[in-house]
């Protein structure tokens, strides 16, 4: 804190800009140490899985209109190619996507399974019956469903 004689120089007792900036930085560091970001991140990743399952369902409907049956695969690259999607792929993906066909192409179950860092057994699932009834995907397992 700078202290000068206001009668001689016209300055008053005040904090310098540097002192204020240091205090703000320290408060910022302390604030970030006290916040647990994992639930926030996992909630966002859950929304990613739900949105991608809805994209898969839309792709399945188009595929069925064109070919008369649903398409099933456990590989994201095949889903992207055949359903004309762009689901995330590569070594740092957060979800593994798969579509299982039940009956002779009559129904499907799309699943998103949490993989890599944060894999906790969580699986989001959307069936063709859910889509027909306007229902949202459901989540099972893991600590961050919901």
How many strands, what sense, and barrel or not for the largest sheet?
4 strands, antiparallel
- Give me the strand/helix succession: HHHHEEEHE
Helix content: 40-55%
Uncertain stretches: none
Broad structural category:
alpha+beta
What's the alpha carbon Rg, rounded to whole Å? 26 Å
**Main sheet strand line-up:** 1-2-3-4
| Straight-line distance between termini | 50 Å
Number of helices: 5
**Shape verdict:** elongated
Describe what this molecule looks like in 3D.
The chain has about 150 residues and is α+β, with helices and mostly antiparallel strands. The chain has helices at about 5-10, 15-35, 40-65, 75-85, 130; strands at about 95-100, 105-115, 125, 140. Helix content is about 45%, strand content about 15%. A 4-stranded antiparallel beta sheet has the order 1-2-3-4. It is elongated. The model has no long low-confidence stretch (mean pLDDT about 85).
